[in-house]
Amino acid sequence: MQQDFQYTKTFRFFTADEIEDVLAQHAEWTFFWQETFIPPDMPNPYNKKDRVYSDLYPKDEFEDDLEQDHLRYYAYIKFFRSSGLLFGIVAGKTGTRLVNASKKKKRGDVCFSVKADLPQKWNAKEFLLLNSLRWAQDRILIVVPKHPKDDLKAHEQEVLEIESKLQTMFNLFGS
């Protein structure tokens, strides 16, 4: 992507297609697009007082789909839209209701907020805000091991390793 953004470092964003092509070469992982059930055109206000946080999280149907697939922990990539293309910007790791059910949390921590408190540490939210860009909040790319470990702690660790590799491979911010 050849566009001047506000930031002193130079780095490259990968398109969704480029990311899929590279991920397809990793025999130990599987990946798929998951709808968040957040409308792509839903406003994501930069002003905190106008923000309704429940609107910034994937809907219950998102968690239902992941639970049906028996996913426990998963790595994900969030994207932003620019010039009609999707570009990866964040890689994270979270758990589904299957591992969060006993906690007060009833969902993973995937969120599409944008904080207006600048300056802050350099992160994806600040990048989007400074460059007048928006999350592609209607879907995320989920990456999981093809053969997840049975032990829950070992499974969480292997997904953490996927998250770290995704951040390195595709110049992604952490979540």
Task: Please characterize this protein's 3D structure.
The chain has 175 residues and is an alpha+beta fold. It is built from five helices and six strands; from the N terminus they run H-E-H-E-E-H-H-E-E-H-E. Strands 1, 2, 3, 4, 5 and 6 form a six-stranded mixed sheet that branches. The longest helix is centred in the C-terminal third of the chain and has 18 residues, at 152-169.
Short structural summary:
This protein is of the alpha+beta class. It has helices spanning 16-23, 60-68, 97-100, 124-130, 152-169; strands at residues 29-35, 73-82, 85-95, 134-135, 139-145, 173-174.
Low-confidence stretches: none
Query: Largest sheet, if any?
Result: 6 strands, mixed
Q: What's the helix-strand series?
A: HEHEEHHEEHE
Total helical elements: 5
Termini, distance in Å?
22 Å
Oligomer: single chain
Morphology: globular
Estimate the strand proportion: 15-25%
Look at the structure and give the mean pLDDT.
81
Roughly what percent helix? Answer: 25-40%
Tell me how many strands there are.
6
Radius of gyration: 16 Å
Q: Briefly note the structural class of the backbone.
A: alpha+beta
How are the SSEs ordered, and which strands pair?
Blueprint (H helix, E strand, L loop, with lengths): L15 H8 L5 E7 L24 H9 L4 E10 L2 E11 L1 H4 L23 H7 L3 E2 L3 E7 L6 H18 L3 E2 L1
Parallel strand pairs: 3-6
Antiparallel strand pairs: 1-5, 2-3, 2-4, 2-5
